[in-house]
């Protein structure tokens, strides 16, 4: 055969693409028949649907085939669906539907009866656009009689066993079944010592033994066994009983059958409690026969540990000696001295030995005791028994009460004297304290070492509890540890700790401040060298308190501002001086800040106070909030004398009107060449006021056509008028800014559009749309804003803001207050014809193209796919007969 023509090939590909859509359909699934269940048990029949259209949550209906027709049982969406003969069982919840997911439910029948045997149909109402697939599925339920029996064996003597740890015990149960089906039994032994049952061993329905992870090791070693004997009896045997074996035991039997799909189904389950087992643990008592003892240094310490137990048979004891510095110490804090393991192996130690005196006594001997041997001693005994797999099992463990051992030594005897070699009389004066060891006895050189700790107690007049603060301390190796209060000052060298001699320590504060006033004392610690060359603190002796205090007076600072010129006009220079006087401040220096309080109508400073210029204590000048770039050098602050400062402001303008003050801070020298702030002062106000004799300006916005269509040009005029003294155009200049509020009401923040300053420079904001702006001055008092190719987002309330500048007679340009116009609303409408012209043309063209394409496909299909070859016969040319002859 030759290749297919192109039209037929295209048609074949189209059919292949549409084939999956035709094959797709709803699928309803139920379990494979038959379902075998036992009379009196609960039956759960699942039903699910897939490959469906419509809503995600599907509805289900269940029916039962009875007497040649289906009887309605229950529905998920129709409460009146249930037939009368099932209504009572449905109302009592004996039969109910349980939804698992949107596409799956379960039919639950409790206390199944033989009459429930038969065929069940699960139906899903159609929600598909087309009828495809299956909308119901059936399953057969087979109900068999209950033939399973589970009992406790009669051979078992008692239902309650009380056993000693380590003995063996056996439990028995019987299980049998007589049913019409070929079933298998699954037997499991369980124990419960808490709220839930735990599995021990089981014989599965497939004839395999299985142990839980908890009993796996004992099962493999043979200590726990599962035996199936004749007469349908099952035995649980436990050797070497442990405390974990205590609890109630039961025999759990389940019946299983194989379905037509080859899978196992559990059809019922029964259990019987066989016995309650109580395990009496091995008793173990550990006693130290020595009471609290006191031993002199370099003597020997002798302690004995006696153990008693009721355990019989083969066992081994393990004894471990511990040492702790506190009676409440745990094993994690205690130190292991020596141990005697179950193989009679003793750990080695140079100063401690352990020996077994008899079968129950273990002796600990500590040679050449030291002060560090003072503490609490106790022993721990453990009983081990062998298992079948030659491993050892711990059955009991007990710890004795601790014994307090005190090792006495000849402590050194000494006294501590603290005196102030240098006491401050004023702030920032140095302070030096000396801590000295006096009348030292029993201080053998090389075995005794002294260290010092310095403490500070704040001076408080009230009865509040004062906490001593650690300034610095030394450890046994004379390493200095600085406290939080003095750490930073010690790093800067302001506080110095030193040891001047073997018996003398000193503390020096280079620059004493008011916060250092209070009581000081030192603590001398004696350290003794032990046999392992370690140092142990033996004694702490504190000194008497030394008070560091001096009387102080409150700082006083007075600042007076004086206006040097009584009258001046705009454009002249404003000049004022600040005179400072202080008391009780040692060698003060001053920093000065000039502030201005503008009228509340000043929009550039709504807060009222402006920081203009400052001069610090080192005579460094800084411009604070002075933002006038045209008058950067227009303000000057200088130091005339040590306590006098002068402020000048050149070419004053009307916007400079307000109250001017001097804010002065007094500084006194602190430690390390640093300056410390002492007190602040504020001067009297000096007022700058001007009489306005110039013109008064007004501004308004006008538009000949405030309503435009998209794409058109919008013209907005900002018109300025003046009243009062007329001015020439060359004596006036304006800064003009345009703003828009994008709403019908003035309830949004204004958006900056463009501005034209008095020098002719235009500034525009960045725009997101295709429209554009232009701003120009068309007359001395008129400014025009144009919006080219306007868009819908150009609508809103538009207004202009004008800042006039007037050329004063003194030859200085004066800035007038900013004025704003009332807004005008610009409305931008849409041209409906232009908006729909191109979409209509495009739609018409696409519709025409699709129609032509459809005609072409129809023509090709009829020409090549439906064409039949008909063999034409040549017609005879005969004349028609007349009707009368016919």
From TrEMBL:
> InterPro entries, alphabetically?
Ig-like_dom, Ig-like_dom_sf, Ig-like_fold, Ig_sub, Ig_V-set, IgSF_V-set/TM_domain
- Where in the sequence is the signal peptide annotated? 1-25
Organism domain of life: Eukaryota
GO CC annotations, alphabetized? membrane
Start and end residues of each Ig-like domain: 7-132, 165-273, 284-400, 412-542, 695-803
Major location category of this protein: membrane
Task: Name the Pfam families for this protein.
Answer: V-set
Membrane topology recorded in Swiss-Prot or TrEMBL: Single-pass membrane protein
Q: Tell me which UniProt keywords the record has, alphabetically.
A: Disulfide bond, Immunoglobulin domain, Membrane, Repeat, Signal, Transmembrane, Transmembrane helix
Compartments where found: Membrane
* PANTHER family on file: PROSTAGLANDIN F2 RECEPTOR NEGATIVE REGULATOR, V-SET AND TRANSMEMBRANE DOMAIN-CONTAINING PROTEIN
Q: What is this protein called?
A: Prostaglandin F2 receptor inhibitor
The organism named in the record is: Crocodylus porosus
